[in-house]
Every structure is written in structure tokens, then in C-alpha cells.
Amino acid sequence: MTVLPLPLVPLPADLALADGAPYALSGAAVTGDPDAAAHLRTLVRTRTGLDLGTGDGIALAVDGSGPAESYRLEASGTGIRITGADAAGLFYGVQTLVQLVARDGGAWVVPAVRIVDSPRFAYRGVMLDVARHFHDLDTVRAYIDRAASLKLNVLHLHLSDDQGWRLELRSRPELTAEASATAVGGAPGGYYTQDDYRAVIAYAASRHMTVVPEFDMPGHTHAVGLAYPELAEAPAVEVITEGSTPVAGEPYTGIGVGFSSLRIGDEATDAFVRDVFAELAELTPGPWLHFGGDESLGTTPEDFAQFVASASAAITALGKTPVAWHEAGAAAGLAPGTVGQFWGFVSPTDAATRHARAFAERGGRLILSPADAVYLDMKPTADSPLGLTWANGPTSLVRAYDWEPTRVVDGVDEATILGVEAPLWTETVATLEDIDALAFPRIAAAAEIAWSPASGAERSWASFRSRVGGLGPLWTTLGIRFPALEEVPWTT
Which Gene3D superfamilies does the record match to this protein (predicted)? Predict the structure, then answer.
């Protein structure tokens, strides 16, 4: 099998090595789209120490032709041209160009290539859980940069859970006043002001990423009970299988799940749900609002179905598309068009399959996040000091790569799949260094599955492990502290 000799991840849809000399970056200049040019200058300076001038050499342009987010890149000894169908496509072409930059003796060069590239799926996401451990603005911005460099275009923020509520809401000020100060293991908590949240959205937009905020309900709501005790049921401690036991009215710093529930059927709870999602909708320009709906083990099936119906209807009425974890598919009243996020295993249970299919049957689409393939919080190796193992044990890089979205949920075809998302839950993740240690290099596998064609000569584990290994020097210069997994032949 041939292995592509270029460290490109995700694999482009169409790539051909060209004859001729490479393009030398020393003394090179860039012209064209100012935003893309500024971004390229920053990345090239970081990677090589070279400053690109202004003028001919590297030409960047948007021409409006081709599929959304697509680009064309041509490099030869005399120059480089990147043309995007839109601003996002041009941005992704810049990311590809930076991956192509290589040492040739004492020079920095770009090999002669021709690339025509576009994404397989429209939704290519990562999730960051800021509830189990709070992560500040600088960390979130750094994760956005890391994800965007791999052509991922959605940041799903898990903004509430049993351990804390992380977004200021003026309609419900007690949520941050009373329920934001703690995190797992007694770590300090925190929250985003509305200005902070707007700053995250603006920074993500500058990297062509859409923010999908999540308030998880009706379970995972112990923190809500700290702020508004009249809205919360007593903890269902009998469902706890690990971690400490929750106590009503006291902050929860353990990692147990499933024990909490809102008090469903009360007008006060309905008003709360309407308030928080109405304010979230005003703050969020993107089309999706996520209401959770997972692991509601302390909620009766009847109450759960009632809640899912009312919450999804409330979000739809706000002009947004509801998103929910796949368990919400069990509710007969789920609002039509709701997007389901599947987090079962690559070989799912019958119930998970049935619930996931229900979204499609109601006119919605699916986001694939199989836990034993793309949950970035799983240990990459058995001896990893960070991460968990409940999703079929440690998740190696080859397992993160070796799955196909259309073969997970029976009866769901490619047209029904909105995309792929790699969640990072943060029970063991307190710092950016921790994020890097678990996300990389497996985030690159998720990016390739979401972007690249399903098949092809180089769409293989052998090619991927070689290509991702070639990104080691780039990731190092960008400050990404990735683990050098033995599965990969790393370039040094």
C-alpha cells in the first residue's frame, strides 16, 4: 500500500503531487484576502520564524465557486494560489498550506501539489465540558484554534451539570451566584459572563466555528437545585454507581451521574426552562440549542417524555433547532426536526439504535459521537494518568480511526447524518495541558472521519498514522503538548 508522503490531516478529497521544484518560503509574500493573509502570516511565523511580506507569491482569494467550505490549492516553484468557495474554504486552505510547510536542508519549502478539497459532513464538532471542571477564556480560545486547524467547525459547550452552572443569565441570577463556585474534586469553579460568552462566539466565528451551547436537563441538574431548590427533586441516590453520594442543597463534587432531576410538571419548572433557553437564544447567533436529555435515571419515563416534549417545543418556538442526546428519542412528543446526538457504542444496543432512529423518523438528523470511538476523555492507553475507561476500556488511536458513521445506527443513511462530534468530558481534565494530553492525536482521527471521503487509496489506518506522525513538528511549534503514542511513527 502506498502511503501519502505529506502530513495532511484530514486527508484532502483530491490531491496530486506535481512535477517541479518546491516553493521556497524565504522572502515570500502574500496578497489577497486580508483575514486569511493575516492568519497565514501568524502561522508561518510561529512554524518557521519567517515573516511573509506583502505582494506576489502566495495569492489568497474567495471566488464563490464550488461547495460550501471547499477550496483549491496549487503550489509550484513559482508561487502558491489558494481559492476558497467562501471565507471558510479559504481558511481551511490556509490550514492545509501550513501543514505542507517542511524543512529542506536549511530552507522552508512547500512541495508542488494540486489539491481540490471539500468536506464530507457539514457538522464537524468538538465538545468541551466546562461544568465538571471550569475552563477559562484563554483555554477555550486555545481549544478553538486547535480544533479549527483540523477543519472542525463546531464547538459544543456543555455549560451546566451537577457540579456547576457556567453561564450568567440575567433572568436567573442565582444560577451563577449560588451554583458556579465548585467543580469535581473540590476544584475551583467559575462561570462566563455574558460578555465572556460573546467573546467566545466571536473568536469561534473568526475561526469559522459555530458555538452550540448546552444546558443539560432534566437530569444533570443538581446545581440548579442549589440556586432554586423548589425546582429540583431529591437526589435519587440509589442510581449512583461510582463517586460520592449527593446531598440536596450541598454542592456536588463527585463524578456520579443520573441521580438528579428537575421537578417536572410544575409551572415554576416550565417557566425556568422557558427563561433560560429564551435568554440563551438571544445570546447565541448559531442555529442550535442543546438541551441535554441524557442519563435521566432519577426521572420517571412519563416525566422524562413530558419534559422532552415541552423543552424541544420551547426551543423550536424560539426559532432555534433543538439538539438532544439520543435518549430523548424515546419521547413520543419530541419536536419535529430535533437533532439527535448519538453517544452509544459503535455497536449499539437495540434501545440506543431505536432512540437514535426516532429523530430521523421525526424529520431530524443525527450527530454521531460513539463513546468507544470519539469520546476524547477515555484513556488512550491503560497506563494513562488521565481519562476514564467505561466506554469499552481505553480507546487507542486506531480504534478512534477505524469506524464508519453510516455503519453505526442501522437504518440511518449518510443523508440523515448531520455530522460527527468528538466530546471531551472533564472529570479528570483541569488544564489546557490535560486537554492536549487526551484530545491529541485522537481529535485528528475524528476530524478525518468528519471531513474526508469514506474511502480511497490513502483513506486508511496505515496512511493516517504516517500522516499524523508527520504533524508532530507543527503541533510542537504551536504549543500543543500531545502524547507521543507508540501507535504512530512520529517525525522529530
Answer: Chitobiase/beta-hexosaminidase domain 2-like, Glycosidases
Place of cell 506522525: 469
Question: Cα(449)–Cα(367) distance, rounded to whole angstroms?
Answer: 13
Provide the whole-model pTM: 0.97
Q: Is residue 469 domain-resident?
A: no
* Residue 471 falls inside a structural domain: no
Reported for 334-338, long-range contacts at CB under 8 A and 24+ positions apart, including other chains, are: 334/308, 334/309, 334/358, 334/359, 334/362, 335/309, 335/362, 336/362, 336/363, 336/364, 337/362, 337/363, 337/364, 338/312, 338/362, 338/364
Rounded average pLDDT over 348-362: 97
In a domain, 485, yes or no: no
pLDDT tens, position by position, 159-208 = 999 999 999 999 999 999 999 999 999 999 999 999 999 999 999 999 99
Which pLDDT tens digit goes with each residue over 374-390? 999 999 999 999 999 99
Asked if 112 and 407 count as a contact pair (C-beta separation under 8 A), the reply is no
β-strands 23-24, 113-117 pairing = unpaired
- Three-state SS for 228? coil
Instruction: Please check whether residue 59 is in contact with residue 74, taking contact to mean a CB–CB distance below 8 angstroms.
Output: no
Q: Which three cell numbers stand for residue 490?
A: 512520529
Range of the domain at 373: 123-454
Spatial CA neighbour of 170 closest among 184, 154, 191, 189? 191
Res 411 pLDDT > 60 = yes
For residue 223, what is the DSSP state? H
C-alpha cell of 97? 498550506
What is the pLDDT at residue 1?
37
Residue tagged active-site, from 214, 233, 295, 427: 295
Residue 4 above 70 pLDDT?
Answer: no
User: Which of 64, 84, 117 lies at the terminal end of a domain, its last residue?
Assistant: 117
CA dist 157 and 132 (Å) reads 12
81 by Cβ neighbours in 10 Å (0-12 / 13-18 / 19+) ranks as: middle
Burial class (CB in 10 A: 0-12, 13-18, 19+), 382: exposed
The CATH number for 281's domain is 3.20.20.80
Annotation says 282 is catalytic: no
- For 16, counting Cβ atoms within 10 Å of its Cβ (0-12 exposed, 13-18 middle, 19+ buried), the class is exposed
**Of 262, 286, 285, 261, which is closest to residue 274 (Cα–Cα)?**
262
3-state secondary structure of 439: helix
Mark residue 265 as left, alpha or beta (left: phi above 0; alpha: psi -120 to 50; beta: remaining).
Answer: left
Q: How confident is the model at residue 242 (pLDDT cuts 50, 70, 90)?
A: confident
pLDDT at 258: 96
For residue 277, give the nearest of 354, 215, 203 by alpha carbon: 215
Regarding whether 267 and 161 lie in a shared domain, the answer is: yes
pLDDT in tens, 6-15: 999 999 999 9
Beta-bridged to residue 445, according to DSSP, are: none
